[in-house]
Amino acid sequence: MNEELIIAGFGGQGVLSMGMTLAYAGMVEDKQVAWIPSYGPEMRGGTANCTVIVSDTRVSSPIISSYDTAIVLNQPSLEKFESRVKPGGTLIYESNNILNPPTRKDINIYAIPATVEANKIGNAKTMNMIILGAFLSKTPLVSVNSIMEGLKKVLPERHHNLLPVNEKALKRGMELLK
């Protein structure tokens, strides 16, 4: 198993923390991982993305130009990364932030209303965990337990009280694509 993905959106949407959580979860399961963040100088509202590789074998290079999966949370990211998903790959997008949906016919495309679902849960900041759960329902790289262990490393300890709502969001995302 070797999964190469890009996660992209605006700063403040949890793009980097989603990727870092997935990478930590891979390490919990003794997988080989790479996580490479990329972001503009803005704290919130600028573009952000990260490349994540999770593999059973050694990662030969963390620099890749095409992806097995793209998770996109905004229109500019969709426009930039849709064409870089490998044929037969997967594109998961946050449907409330995309005005012009993807058009490719040679990839699997899933629209997730993660913002709406996060608001139903009562915490808009869990949108990224809903998207991550949807991804994991289609590509079960790691377990929910490993994601939660990874999230404990990513979230500052003062926010560990949010772990239960994040787990609920992760599971809700998994339900959306079952």
Notes on the structure:
The chain has 178 residues and is of the alpha/beta class. It has a single domain, classed as Pyruvate-ferredoxin oxidoreductase, PFOR, domain III (Pyruvate-ferredoxin Oxidoreductase, domain 3). 37% of the residues lie in helices and 26% in strands. The chain is built from 6 helices and 6 strands; from the N terminus they run E-H-E-E-E-H-E-E-H-H-H-H. A 6-stranded mixed sheet has the order 2-3-1-4-5-6, sandwiched between helices. Helix 2 links the parallel strand 4 and strand 5. Helix 1 packs across helix 5, helix 4 packs across helix 6 and helix 5 packs across helix 6. The longest helix has 14 residues. It is globular, with a radius of gyration of 15 Å.
Shape: globular
- Number of helix segments? 6
Number of strands: 6
Q: Which architecture does the CATH hierarchy give at level 2?
A: 3-Layer(aba) Sandwich
CATH C-level class = Alpha Beta
Any idea what the radius of gyration is? 15 Å
Offer a few descriptive terms:
Pyruvate-ferredoxin Oxidoreductase, domain 3; 37% helix; 6 strands; 6 helices; single chain; 178 residues; six-stranded mixed β-sheet; alpha/beta
